[in-house]
Write a structure and sequence with these properties.
The complex is a heterodimer of chains A (306) and B (481). Chain A has helices at residues 9-53, 70-77, 79-100, 102-112, 117-125, 132-143, 148-155, 170-195, 199-207, 212-223, 225-240, 244-249, 261-271, 275-305; strands spanning 56-57, 65-66. With 306 residues, chain A is mainly alpha-helical. Chain A folds into two domains: 10-53, no CATH class; 77-305, MetI-like fold, CATH 1.10.3720.10. Chain A has a two-stranded antiparallel ribbon with strand order 1-2. In chain A, strand 1 and strand 2 form a beta hairpin. In chain A, helix 3 (79-100) crosses helix 8 (170-195). The radius of gyration of chain A is 27 Å and the shape is flat. The relative contact order of chain A is 0.12. Chain B has 481 residues and is an alpha+beta fold. Chain B has two domains: 58-171 and 339-393, Periplasmic binding protein-like II (D-Maltodextrin-Binding Protein, domain 2, 3-Layer(aba) Sandwich); 175-337 and 420-477, D-Maltodextrin-Binding Protein, domain 2. Chain B contains 20 helices and 15 strands. Chain B has helices at 2-22, 26-31, 39-45, 71-87, 102-110, 125-130, 138-142, 152-155, 180-185, 197-207, 225-236, 256-271, 283-291, 302-310, 350-361, 367-383, 400-410, 421-426, 437-453, 459-473; strands at 59-64, 91-96, 117-121, 159-160, 163-164, 167-173, 175-179, 215-218, 242-245, 248-251, 295-300, 319-322, 333-344, 392-393, 427-431. In chain B, strands 3, 6, 13, 14 and 15 form a five-stranded mixed beta sheet that branches. A four-stranded mixed beta sheet of chain B has the order 8-11-7-12. The longest helix of chain B has 21 residues, at 2-22. The radius of gyration of chain B is 25 Å and the shape is globular. Classes of the chains: A mainly alpha (306), B alpha+beta (481). At the A-B interface, helix 1 and helix 13 of A face helix 1, helix 2, helix 5 and helix 19 of B. Chain A: The chain crosses the membrane at residues 25-47, 89-110, 122-142, 169-192, 227-249, 278-299. Chain A: It is found in: Cell membrane. Chain A: One of its GO terms (cellular component) is plasma membrane. Chain A: Keywords: Cell membrane, Membrane, Sugar transport, Transmembrane, Transmembrane helix, Transport.
Chain lengths: 306, 481
């Protein structure tokens, strides 16, 4: 008596479920594939390679040599790295003090304009489209000891200010330059948020006799509160990696006063050709920034739920 | 759900690490820790040449080309490429206008995109040879008829373990470039070639006009080039940047001579107030300031004279080249000796390396080389441009070829800027530091910047601090062979 093969109904159902799931998601996966490939090649693989290189003495010709945690030990014992990290924190703080609040103020002011709002939006965004070479050339001219800023100060009997060669002022000058250049984008994001606030709230407030300041305080600012957190996170991430303006305006000087952590990484990689150590510094930065982002996003999530 | 997400991320990261580890530099790993230069390449390249009946293999070389803003150099290279093609029809020459930069060479080599040959400076010897980024020229030199005619003063910078890793191009010795117009404007007599630090101080003070933004003296002080400038004063004071002691390299720039050199710059900055108010100048800034008539005295060489006239619109009669001032009367007029060299890319196949070697040496010691220079001089004459030959070139100036070149220069008195022979006679060149020169320059620049921002800076303490840190961080890792 031969056994009759029987199909297990549970297995059949499982297979059907998988096929159905595949059919449901197939097109989604196919559409996602290019993005996954691009992210893999240009983002995730470099991150993984950075981690791998951080344990190596990288030599593209003679071959890499495993050095374990040597680069990390060197980084944590280095005085220059500590100085660059301090400078970066100072730069981030200055960015918050000088540049963070401007876009929201400008966006609120723009939203209150009854005429020329479109033109003003364009004007506000213009600094963003100035090519970097022109921008740095312009600010070098503005900051020159004989430049326009010092000329204006001289009208008020104020002595020349050494914007870029004074140890105490150089970083502030850099932050002013960057705030001017990048506040347009943040302004547009705030403005989009303000436009999204229902109009009837404002109409109701006006009927109730609320003035401009009251409208801003009780409707506009609460309405874009989530954007404050988002742009705070973006600013922290952006400024922690700042180095371009420092290269162009001060070269990290005077005497390392504007040397940031990212600037040091690029120096380590492209001047000292020590790609292993530079990768290790990058990994440390990656870990710190990921941690900071997770904390900030969880705070944002909590504030949204509240 | 959270756990599943975390697991997925961990698996992804592990997978990527695995992929990246596996996809590492296979070529490099195979090479392991072999000597800097691929011995296989050299063996192959030194193999006997193919028989005359055998057609040479078609090869393509990438020749270093000039940037579009230098039409004079472009036409010179174009002419050379045409003549090379006629001589070596099996070689295709592609142009590549990448110019050597220390911060880019690593990427070029990693991406295998460096040209077949490139021009670099004397300080790069240890880096390029140590990392295996310069081909060993021994096999090519063995078949080169003028191997022994190259200027020995220049070849030594790229000689390691008795092997030659570069072909010399030209050399410079730092001198001082003066804008005579600014001296005339203030009725200040021009310094004489036997001048001293005190004379420089007085001349700079007399010509400076801070209200008009005119500096009496401008030194680079923004990037590593600041240390490069300062080393001239260190040498004049009789100092050295480093020495080898018990098989280790140690800094010596913090010596008494170093203190004197830095004190002199401090005096120029705070006592004489002759530096530009924005003293943080890089290489380009310094010479732009000079070309704008905003600096009376800068450090330079014949190449900077050429640039000031050809690209800065200055009149060569308004310019004066003097030797470096001596620290004291009767002292030596020492300037940093540097040079430019041709490197053959070791990543190229042996036959490509040979073609690149042939391209570089095509005009060396030949009538075609003389003719090429003549053609260049004619073109410059027609355009009202000048040529200021470097203080030393690949050939010995006293050789037969050297004399031919001098005779050619003499035919173009209006086009060729000849440095005063008295100035040349007084000038003494001293090579740049042999180990980690660019790092050393960067360290010195930081000290300079502190001195320039702090009137009460303790020069001796700053130099000692910089030296001990530099020794610990950098020089202690140098292996002296």
């Amino acid at each position: 008596m031969s056994a009759i093969p029987t199909v297990q109904p549970t297995n059949l159902h499982a297979e059907k479920r998988i096929v159905k799931r595949f059919r449901d998601y197939a097109w989604g996966f196919i559409f996602l594939l290019p993005a996954i490939v691009v992210f893999c090649v240009f983002l995730w693989l470099p991150i993984a390679k950075g981690i791998y290189f951080s344990f190596m003495n990288v030599d593209f010709v003679k071959g890499n040599l495993f050095v374990g945690l040597a680069h990390y030990r060197e980084i944590f014992q280095s005085g220059v790295v500590a100085l660059a990290a301090r400078n970066t924190l100072y730069y981030m703080l200055l960015g918050l003090l000088i540049g963070y609040w401007i876009p929201s103020v400008v966006a609120i002011a723009l939203s209150e304009l009854r005429w020329f709002q479109g033109s003003m939006r364009l004007i506000v965004y213009l600094p963003n489209i100035v090519p970097a070479v022109v921008l740095y050339g312009m600010w070098q001219y503005l900051y020159d000891p004989l430049g326009p800023l010092n000329q204006i100060l001289s009208w008020f009997g104020i002595d020349k200010v050494m914007w870029l060669t004074d140890k105490g002022l150089a970083m502030i000058s850099i932050v002013i330059t960057e705030s001017w250049q990048s506040f347009g984008t943040a302004t547009l994001i705030y403005l989009a948020g303000i436009i999204g606030i229902p109009k009837d709230l404002y109409e109701a407030a006006e009927i109730d006799g609320a003035g401009v300041l009251q409208r801003i305080r009780h409707i506009t600012i609460p309405g874009i509160r989530h954007l404050y957190v988002l742009l705070f996170i973006l600013q922290i991430i952006g400024t922690s990696q700042g180095f371009m303006t420092h290269v162009a305006l001060t070269g990290g000087g005077p005497n390392n006063a504007t040397l940031t952590y990212m600037y040091l990484i690029t120096n380590e990689a492209f001047v000292n050709l020590n790609f292993g150590k530079a990768s290790a510094m990058g990994v440390i930065m990656f870990v710190v920034m990921t941690t900071v982002s997770i904390i900030l996003y969880s705070i944002q999530g909590r504030s949204k739920r509240a | 759900m959270k756990k599943r997400g975390l697991a997925a991320v961990t698996v992804m990261l592990a997978l990527l690490l695995l992929i990246s580890a596996c996809s590492g530099n296979n070529a490099g790993n195979q090479a392991g820790n072999q000597p800097a230069n691929d011995s296989k390449n050299n063996e192959e390249s030194s193999a006997p040449p193919a028989s005359e009946t055998e057609a040479p293999k078609e090869v393509t070389i990438t020749a270093q080309y000039a940037k579009p803003d230098n039409p004079v150099a472009m036409s010179v290279i174009d002419d050379r490429i045409e003549r090379f093609k006629a001589l070596y029809p099996h070689v295709t020459v592609e142009k590549n206008d990448w110019q050597y930069a220390p911060q880019e060479i690593g990427i070029k080599m990693a991406a295998k995109q460096a040209p077949s040959f490139f021009n670099t400076f004397a300080t790069e010897g240890n880096t390029l040879v140590g990392r295996g980024w310069a081909a060993d020229l021994t096999s090519f030199m063995a078949n080169y008829q003028h191997a022994n005619d190259l200027n020995p003063t220049l070849t030594s910078a790229f000689e390691f373990d008795g092997k030659q890793y570069a072909l010399p191009d030209s050399a410079y010795i730092f001198m001082v470039m003066i804008n005579k117009k600014l001296f005339e404007a203030k009725n200040v007599p021009l310094p004489t070639p036997d001048w001293t630090w005190d004379d420089l101080y007085e001349a700079a003070k007399a010509t400076a006009d801070p209200d008009k933004g005119i500096a009496g003296f401008a030194s680079m002080a923004k990037g590593p080039e600041g240390g490069w400038n300062w080393t001239n004063f260190l040498y004049q004071a009789g100092g050295e940047a480093q020495k080898v002691e018990g098989g280790k390299v140690v800094s010596t720039f913090q010596s008494e001579a170093g203190v004197k050199a830095m004190e002199f710059l401090k005096k120029l900055r705070w006592e004489a107030n002759v530096l530009p108010e924005n003293w943080a100048l890089n290489y380009g800034d310094t010479y732009n300031l000079f070309k704008q008539g905003r600096a009376a005295i800068v450090l330079g060489d014949s190449g900077r004279i050429e640039d000031a006239v050809n690209n800065g619109g200055m009149n060569k009669d308004d310019l004066l080249l003097l030797p470096m001032p001596a620290m004291e009367a009767g002292g030596e007029h020492v300037g940093v000796l540097g040079g430019n060299y041709f490197i053959i890319n070791p990543q190229e196949a042996p036959e490509v390396q040979q073609a690149a070697f042939d391209f570089v040496t095509m005009d060396f010691f030949s009538d075609s080389g003389i003719e090429a220079v003549r053609k260049d001089l004619e073109a410059r004459k027609a355009e009202g441009k000048i040529k200021a030959p470097p203080v030393a070139e690949y050939f010995d100036p006293n050789s037969e070829f050297g004399k031919k070149m001098q005779a050619l220069y003499a035919e173009y008195p209006e086009t060729v800027y000849v440095t005063d022979p008295d100035v040349v006679a007084l000038t003494k060149g001293k090579p740049e530091p042999a180990y980690n020169a660019q790092d050393y320059y960067a360290v010195i620049t930081n000290v300079m910047q502190e001195v320039f921002i702090n009137k009460d800076a303790d020069v001796k303490a700053l130099l000692e601090q910089a030296a001990s840190k530099f020794d610990a961080d950098v020089l202690s890792k140098v292996v002296v062979e």
